[in-house]
Amino acid sequence: MPRLDRALGAVIGSAVGDALGAPFEFGPEGAFSARFPTAGHGGEMCGGGGWEPGEATDDTQMAVLVGESLVECGGLELPDVFRRFQRWAAAEPKDIGLQTEAVLGSGDPWDLAAALHFQTSQRAAGNGALMRAATSGVYFAPLGRDGTMDAGRRLAALTHGDRAAWEGTAILHELLRVALAGDDPLAAVPESLTAVHPDHRDRYATVLAPAWHPDLATEFNGAVWPCLGSAVWALRTTSSYEDAVRAAVDLGGDTDTVAAVTGALAGAVHGVGAVPERWTDVLHVPLPGFGGRVLRTADLAALTRLLGS
Ligand SMILES: [Mg+2]
């Protein structure tokens, strides 16, 4: 499979997972399958909870902002990414993470805002940096393991002061890099853990172990560890893009983000051809703060090509 198909799968697959999961956010386990018992029958992009059918949420909106900054700046310009996030947050998107909102609205400089918030809150290990990693995962993959993991950490640190969020985002970047190269990201987990900060290695080793199951999570899946663990579990226990994101949404809880992370991985592994057209046809990504733009699947594909593959 051409590398481009995997890159498109990561970016579009993540957005589709986000839109598919959004109506089920904070719902119970199994709600998706209860409503859509048979795979492949359509109608799953159902909307609800304030979301239109196929409408992607903050996860994808922020991933697009990251991707467009990387393309337009020709590289990682963290102050530019932060400014785009601020502009977006000020336009009152339908959803925004509590912590992301606090950091972006703090008035503190880009390189201090997340750290200052963490000092006072001590709670910053949400999945809000993990959820927006598909575009940067594609862009930085050519740098190799250490380069892509470092970029992932720095992007996460813009809004999340807790190193746990940096390390989780770094691992996801590395697993995407492996998948984009056509290799098995599941087989790369042990190797990727060796590049994780030692203070955080054990906790990620636990949730990424083959025997781990989302029922074993010790936090809500809005936290970075079970979110990443659940996405990897969904990839490991299925053999198609569709089944992977279905399993992710069926976990309940923070369904849009767990499915966005799952969709990035499963899209990179199975390729964009595995992402059902009945889902990409209705996918759309409003971008508050940026002149009323609404990106469709073709726009995400164009962005992905510019990110390089
Ligand atoms: Mg969301």
Short key terms for the protein model shown above:
binds magnesium ion, hydrolase, Ribosyl_crysJ1, globular, 16 helices, Ribosyl_crysJ1_sf, 309 residues, mainly alpha
Any chance you could write out the topology, listing elements then pairs?
Layout: H1 3-21, H2 31-35, H3 58-73, H4 78-90, H5 98-104, H6 113-121, H7 134-140, H8 144-157, H9 163-180, H10 189-193, H11 198-207, H12 224-236, H13 241-249, H14 255-270, H15 277-280, E1 284-286, E2 294-296, H16 297-307
Antiparallel strand pairs: 1-2
Helix pairs in contact: 1-7, 1-13, 1-14, 1-16, 3-4, 3-7, 3-16, 5-6, 7-9, 8-9, 9-14, 11-12, 12-13, 12-14, 13-14
The structure holds magnesium ion.
Residues 57-59, 95, 256-257 line the site of magnesium ion.
Structural description of this entry:
By secondary structure, the chain is mainly α. Helix content is 57%, strand content 2%. Strand 1 and strand 2 form a beta hairpin. It binds magnesium ion. Magnesium ion binds at residues 57-59, 95, 256-257. Belongs to the ADP-ribosylglycohydrolase family.
Summarize the structure.
Belongs to the ADP-ribosylglycohydrolase family. It comes from Streptomyces hyaluromycini. With 309 residues, the protein is an all-alpha fold.
Q: What is the CA-based Rg, rounded? A: 17 Å
> Which small-molecule ligands are present, each listed once?
magnesium ion
The arrangement of helices and strands along the chain is HHHHHHHHHHHHHHHEEH
What is the tally of helical segments? 16
- Proportion of residues in extended strands: under 5%
Largest sheet: 2 strands, antiparallel
Total count of strands: 2
Mean pLDDT score: 96
